[in-house]
User: Which sequence fits this backbone?
C-alpha cells in the first residue's frame, strides 16, 4: 500500500489532499506535492519516495521494456543545478544523507507526475466517450437551488411592542394601575 501525501496514513479518496487524481490539473498536482509531508532525511515514512518506488519506477520500466529509472530534477544553479538520478537507491541515499532536499524532491515529483498524466489528460479531453464516462462515474453535485424557508420566531406575547398581548394581560395591567392609583390617593 502506498502512503498518502500527508503525514502517516494511506492515500484515500475521502481525503483529496492525500492523493493525486488521474485527471488532476498540473497546478493542483504541484500544489498537492508541495504541501506533502516530506521530512529531510526520512526515507521510511515518505509518501513521495514510496510513490517513486511503487508507481513511477514500474511505469518507466514498462515503457522501456526493461528495469530502468530516470528521475530529473530541474533545480537552480545556486542549489547545485539540474540533476538526474538513474538509480532509485542513489536517490534514496542522497535524500537520507540530505544531499537532496525535500524542496528538490518535490519539484522533481510534481514535474514527473505531470509528465505521466499529460497524455492521459490529452486522450480524455479529446474523447467525448471518455468524458461521458467520467461524468457518469463521478457526477458533480449541483448546488441546491431551494432556499431554506425561514421559520418565524415566536417571541412570545410579553415583549414591548407586541400586538398580540393577551386580553387577560391588559386586565391585569389595568387592575395593577388602579391599585397603584388608590395607594397614591390614600
Assistant:
Amino acid at each position: 500500500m502506498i502512503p498518502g501525501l500527508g503525514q502517516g496514513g494511506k492515500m484515500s479518496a475521502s481525503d483529496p489532499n492525500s492523493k493525486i487524481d488521474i485527471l488532476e490539473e498540473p497546478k493542483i498536482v504541484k500544489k498537492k506535492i508541495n504541501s506533502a509531508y516530506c521530512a529531510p532525511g526520512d526515507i521510511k515514512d515518505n509518501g513521495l519516495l514510496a510513490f517513486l518506488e511503487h508507481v513511477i519506477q514500474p511505469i518507466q520500466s514498462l515503457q522501456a521494456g526493461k528495469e530502468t529509472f530516470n528521475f530529473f530534477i530541474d533545480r537552480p544553479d545556486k542549489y547545485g543545478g539540474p540533476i538526474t538520478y538513474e538509480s532509485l537507491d542513489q536517490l534514496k541515499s542522497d535524500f537520507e544523507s540530505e544531499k537532496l532536499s525535500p524542496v528538490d524532491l518535490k519539484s522533481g515529483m510534481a514535474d514527473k507526475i505531470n509528465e505521466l498524466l499529460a497524455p492521459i489528460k490529452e486522450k480524455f479531453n479529446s474523447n467525448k466517450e471518455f468524458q461521458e464516462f467520467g461524468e457518469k462515474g463521478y457526477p458533480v453535485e449541483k448546488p441546491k437551488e431551494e432556499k431554506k424557508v425561514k421559520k418565524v420566531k415566536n417571541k412570545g406575547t410579553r415583549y414591548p411592542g407586541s400586538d398580540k398581548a393577551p386580553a387577560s394581560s391588559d386586565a391585569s395591567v389595568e387592575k395593577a394601575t388602579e391599585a397603584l392609583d388608590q395607594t397614591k390617593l390614600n
